[in-house]
Amino acid sequence: MRQLRVALALLGATLCALAGAALPTASATGSASPAAKKLFSIKDDRIKHPTGLVRSTKHQGTYWAVSSSGDTGRVFALDATGKVEAVFRFGAKVSDVEALGIDRNGTLYVADIGDSKQSRDQVEIYTIPEPESLQDANVKYHQYDFKYPDGAHDAETLLVDPGTSQLYVVTKSSQGAGTIYSAPASPTRQGTNDLTKLAAAPTGVITDGTFLPDGQRVVLRTSTDLATVAWGDNPNAIARSAALPGEGGSVALGGTDGTVVFAADGNSPGVYELAVPAKAATGGTKTPSASATPKPATTDSNGTDTSTKSHNLRWIIIGAALFALLITVFTFPPGRRERRDRQAENDRLTGQSPPTPHRRQHS
User: Fold this and answer.
1) Number of domains in the chain
2) Quick one: where's region Disordered (predicted)?
3) Which of 146, 218, 302, 341 could make an S-S bridge to 229, C-beta 3.0–4.6 Å?
């Protein structure tokens, strides 16, 4: 019996050690984030819910913004104080504009991808050359139609690769995680373009995102925080910010290196600046190359994401370890013979006579 208890105790300790090795440490998921700095408020009744925000490539200090569903086809230019400098209208009949992107050549991408009822047969992205001057104008646009391979989805995030202008759409999910889809490398305006499912998005209700200039990382906005994502075959969050002030649906590159800006909804929406959430430095960390592109998602034969199975296995190991330790403590106390042997040894050492066993009387 004693040998059995020892064996179980060793088993429990071994499982605990294995579980500890399998679980990630806190430093691997990020470092403490400084407080967000408020830059300005948007004091314009036309922009109460800025769902898309990008930094201009041609006009220093200017940000482009779009408003939420129900708005018309237009883009606002904001100065460094939050004042609307100009409004550019394009003639498309939009449904639910939820995101805004910009490439290195100054092309604006207006993403009409919202679908809260998940009933749309296709979604649209409109491109507009960034205007040379900041004056109200009606502008020309190009329309690109896209459809998902697995039915309609609600989405609020458009990503534009800074090196290749490759487009990615990240769907929004209130349960679990959304999904990353890629557009064709060269979308066509003739017919509908097929989106390709690439990988599961990091957890959280994702409402916007932007590539960082290196093309290796993406910052995603969720309903509660910002997540820095290592871009590659399996995009994963490597750092997260503290809770953000207020809810919102936009994030963009900041005015200085290593920063992003984001907006909070409400009357006079506030725009804040925050350092990009950074992973604590560790030796030997491999960074994905700038050209890394996610590959189509892989699942097992039952359709389960393998990363989810690995996470579940860690908790199975922990549960087994605790169970073994509890069994050892409560199920296998010292046996009767072992207690009697110890009592006999104590009696021999002290010179006492062993007690006479009591026999049960039978009537």
Assistant:
1) 2
2) 281-308, 337-363
3) 218
